[in-house]
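Page 37, top half.
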Amino acid sequence: MKVMVADKIAADGIKKLKDGGFEVLSVWEEPKEKLPELIKDCEALIVRSATKATKELIDAAPKLKVIGRAGVGLDNVDAAHAKTRNIKVVNTPGATSISVAELAVGLTLAVSRKVALTDRGTRKGEWPKKAGEGIEIFGKSVGLIGLGRIGRETAKRFRAMGATVRYYDVIRPLPYDEKDWGIEFRPLDELLAMSDIISIHVPMTPETKGLLDKERVAKIKKGAILVNTSRGGIVDEAALAEALRSGQLYGAALDVFETEPLKSSPLFELDNVVLTPHVGAQTAEGQLRAGVEIAELVIKELKALGK
């Protein structure tokens, strides 16, 4: 069987596929427009986030049985169309949870201690010590929007720093889990109004798109920090820019954007925002886990289907 790896994954993942007896077609350096021709004889497709597993790409592969997404979200995979073809779609939601959670906390620190602002000033030969006065995380109220794997890992880290953690999610865990995890549930608007730090950890779905629109951004507690390491389009970026400009928010940090790569934005003009290019999962450890796990899942599914 032939497996197309359209985006680069860890070498250990490629080795696992080859050791499993599969022919691996590594095409991540090929132009994306060539993929429909290259995939035609493949039984499996592995992607990360760069390649879009569209209806057109899926239909270019009549033998396709499995699509593997090395990562959390499936917004770059047409899973609905894959289902009509009886193609199994798998992903690795837990592989990079720690990586993203650590970035969420790191970005919060970067905003609260004005790391980017003072770094820029110091590099210019300035000494922006007064401008660098920040705030602590200790004793603050953290509101998590989303309590999946990444949300729970983020909660652990904020609690270890002495913060009180509350959350909102459409799915609530059992009460004893909330107690064990040291967190409390709050309705979304209440959470926004009471939190000093808001960290977003929900997938992109029709229900979460525009979740923090202009009206909800206006409900955020004055002086709060907003961090988004989940998906762009969940936060209204224009409304966020206005809230940062007006002083309603102390600061914000975004790793994801509605349009990526981000080429222009009103956020570029602001000193109280930190922007990173969707690097939440970009750690050596996270990518190793994702590459190996997706290889194992694809092998398992192909062997099951081959019986």
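Page 37, bottom half:
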Amino acid sequence: MGRNKPAHQELPPATRPKDQYRHISGVQARYWTMGEGEPAVLVHGLGGSVDHWRYTIEPLAARFQVYAPDLPGFGRSDKPREHPSFAMQAEFLKNLMLGLGISRFYLVGHGVGGAIALHLAHEFPYMVHKLVLVATLGFGREVHWSYRLKSLPLLGELLTLPSRLGTRQMVMRLFYRHDLVTRECINTHYRLARLPGASRFFLAATRYSVDAGGIRREVMQSAQAQAREITAPTMIIWGREDQILPVTQAETARQLIAGAQLRILEECGHLPMVEKAQEFNELLLGFLSDDPDKGA
């Protein structure tokens, strides 16, 4: 944390829609939905859940019908025995939306969820009207050292055992402004981490994307190859002080995706939709709504 920082905006009231469940691709999956209008899908990242969108869903629902699922293996969705590939997670999202009667939508992905959204937009471009990538994995090898340690045999199993201290340390890394790490925030992550199969799946998901050297080369190469062929209008959003995936990777993403807009949020860590909720929501609404006063 730096010194002599200017005053920050406070977090808006959190919205928690009713949990809903749907059986998709062999998984009983939780999702939230709110609003009316054109559909927009929010995809959380590694170790996340629909709760990461709690400050986004209501503002976005003023103009869109918003859907936010827990990906298979995360949150309160079922935990498969085998970790699904990004292609399988993208297939889950496609099937979820088609099952809801929706064949075209706006797509927003964060972290690993951004890599999954990228895969979906590449493989099924006719389904994605616009794409927003938030601190997305795949645009460089560098990642926080804690994930590299978790990729190691035995040490990974030890480090992913659920504990309040470990959960607090993990959540703190996601934020620049540590006073936003509330007891409620830690308790939400801790409760989800203790669900049957959650720590096993989180470790498998980490090792799918990360090895001792950082983001796995094949994961990075696949994401970057897909990025070069994205045709949907795209916005990239990143926190300047992101400790998990450094902000230098944002510029790589912008260069690879033709016509992509890049927005860097100052004094912000890995969760812009939480830490800079108001600014994030204005950018998101402006871009998705083609509002030049906010999207430019």
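Margin note: The chain has a mean pLDDT of 93.
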